[in-house]
């Protein structure tokens, strides 16, 4: 998470390519398999290809897996709050015309997960909610993530340029210190 390179991920590059090519589609048949595929398509590229269009190239695939899996009951079948958290990240990550609606859904699901979290994990869940709220503000304001504009070769509006100059990107905010159980 947090959008940067991850030295542990290069060995998984072939898995990302296989997933992007549809060679791992059978994973989606079971909830944790679908979650694994979502992680490979949503999280791994961000750590493998930071600062390049490839970081976001499989967002649409991950989103489709999330939405189809949710309709099929696979989100509800997951038992861990962390599994559910990562299952729905593509709702927030994938840009598109219905992004605002999906951000609101991701936030509502995050609020439900946070309410169920044990006390010692509350700081991380509250942080995640603050992240989701920050992303919602950005999508409400711009309809997309302006920090991706230079990477994707998109022109920025004057308002987006002002936002970019400030550099207070939600995904770069510090995690809370870990509480003891």
Helix-strand string: HHHHHHHHH
Number of strand segments: 0
Major β-sheet profile:
none
Strand percentage lies at under 5%
Secondary structure class reads mainly alpha
User: How helical, in percent, are the residues?
Assistant: 55-70%
Write down the Rg: 16 Å
Total of DSSP H or I helical runs spanning 4+ residues: 9
What distance separates the N and C termini?
23 Å
What is the overall silhouette? globular
- The pLDDT mean sits at 91
Q: Which spans of ≥5 residues are poorly predicted at pLDDT below 50? A: none
Question: How would you characterize the overall build of this protein?
Answer:
With 181 residues, this protein is mostly helical. 60% of the residues lie in helices and 0% in strands. It is built from 9 helices and no strands. The protein is globular. It starts with 12 loop residues before the first helix and ends in a 15-residue tail after the last helix. The mean pLDDT is 91.
Task: Give a short synopsis of this structure.
60% of the residues lie in helices and 0% in strands. The protein has helices at residues 13-20, 31-48, 59-71, 74-77, 81-93, 99-116, 122-142, 149-152, 158-166.
């Amino acid at each position: 998470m947090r959008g940067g390179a991850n030295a542990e991920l290069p060995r998984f590059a072939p898995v990302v390519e296989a997933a992007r090519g549809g060679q791992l589609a059978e994973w989606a048949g079971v909830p944790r398999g679908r979650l694994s595929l979502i992680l490979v398509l949503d999280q791994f590229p961000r750590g493998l290809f930071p600062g390049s269009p490839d970081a976001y190239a499989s967002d649409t695939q991950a989103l489709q897996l999330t939405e189809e899996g949710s309709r099929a009951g696979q989100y509800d079948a997951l038992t861990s709050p962390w599994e559910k958290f990562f299952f729905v990240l593509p709702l927030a990550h994938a840009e598109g015309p219905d992004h605002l609606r999906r951000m609101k859904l991701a936030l509502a699901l995050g609020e439900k997960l946070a309410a169920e979290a044990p006390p010692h994990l509350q700081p991380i869940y509250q942080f995640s909610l603050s992240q989701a709220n920050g992303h919602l503000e950005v999508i409400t304001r711009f309809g997309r993530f302006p920090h991706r504009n230079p990477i994707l070769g998109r022109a920025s509006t004057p308002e987006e340029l002002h936002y970019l100059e400030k550099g207070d990107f939600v995904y770069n905010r510090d995690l809370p210190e870990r509480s003891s159980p």
